[in-house]
Amino acid sequence: MANHSKFPNLGISIFSAMSALAQQYGAINLAQGFPGFEVSEQLVDLVGTYMRKGVNQYSPMEGVLRLREVISQKQKNLYGISYDVATEVTISAGATEAVFAAISAFVHEGDEVICFEPVFDIYPPAIDFNKGKLIRIKLETPHFHYDWDKVAALVNPKTKLIILNTPHNPTGKILTAIDIEKLVAIVKNTSIVVISDEVYEHMVFDGKSHLSLASHPQLYDRTVVIASLGKVFHCTGWRIGYCLAPKYLTAEIRKVHQFVTFSANTPIQYAMADFLEQQENYLSLSKFFQQKRDFFIAQMSGSAFKFLPTDGSYFLLADYSAISQMSDLEFVKWITQKHAVAAIPVSVFNADGQDDKLIRFCFAKKEQELAEAAKRLCVI
Ligand SMILES: Cc1ncc(COP(=O)(O)O)c(C=O)c1O
To answer: Ligand 1 atom closest to Cα of 230?
Structure first.
C-alpha cells in the first residue's frame, strides 16, 4: 500500500538533529535548550516522597489543585493578575502541549495567525495541522525590533491569533511597555486572541523586567499565557508546563488538552507545588543565568565571534561572519565535527531560510563546560 505522508514537509527538528550530531562527534552540546546541571535535591526528594505517598494515578484533567493554587498566587504576587483556580489555570505536559492545545482550540481552516521571525519551531506545525495560515513578520536585524506598523497592516478579519514570545527564543529580546501599548492599539476592537509564550519569564537580565502580556488590563481578556516549570526548575524532561487564560478561552483549550494528554505527571505536580511556594527557587534565576551569560562572553573574549545583546532566555546569538562565509547550517556542522561544539543555525527559524551568519548558543551549562567550549571556539 502506498504510504502517503500527511505531513511530507515535516522532518526531525534541528534541535534533535544537532543533538544527535553532537553525540556522534562527542561535542559539547550548546545547541539544544536544556540546562546542563542538576535538578535541586530537594525537588527530587519531594517527587520521591509523593510517589511513596501513593499519588501515582491520573491527576484531575486540569491539574493538581495545589499546584494551580500556587501558580495563581504567584501570578498575583508578581504581576497583579488574578486567575480563578478552577476555571483559568491548566497544567499541561510541558509548554509544548499547551501551545498545541491553544492553537488547536482557536484556529479554524483558513484563519490567519501572526508569528514573528525568527520563529520558535513548535508554532508553525501546530498552525499547519489545523489548516491555519501562518503570517510571518520579520523582527528587524540587527536589533530584532518589532515593526508594529507592519503588524497593523497585516491584521484583517481573518486574523485569529497573534503569537508572541517574551523573552524570545532565539534572540533573547523582551517586549517593552511601548511594544505592548502598540499591540493593544492593534487588537482593540478585534476578536484576536493573543498567545504569549513566557517560558523564560524568570530569566531576564541587566535589571530589566519581564512584562506578562496578561498584566495589561486591555489584554487580560484575550490573552493565553503559557509557561514551563521544566525550564524554571532545570528539568525539561519532566514535561510540566501550564496555561493561564480567561474562563471562556480556558474552556476551549481544555477540550483539546483532555484528549491530547488528559493530564500531566501527578507526583511531579505535587512536588512542584511545594517547591514553587518558595519564591527564591525562581526569583534567583535571572541572577544565576546572567552570571552564566557573562561568564561565557568573558571566556569567548579572545574569539572572532561577535555576540548580539540578549535581554533574557538562556540563549546568545553570535555573528561568525568574521570567521567564515559558510552558510550557518554548514558552519554549525563544521564546528561540531571539527571543534566539538554544537550550536543552532538561526536560518532554520526563518521560512525563507534568510541567513544572517548568526548561530545560537545555549549558555545554561556548567561553567566548566562553558569554559571548555569557549577554549575550543577561541582557536577558530
Ligand atoms: C520559546 C519556547 N516555548 C516553548 C518551549 C517548550 O517548553 P517545554 O519544554 O516546557 O515544552 C520552549 C523550549 O525550548 C521554548 O524555547
So the answer is: 10
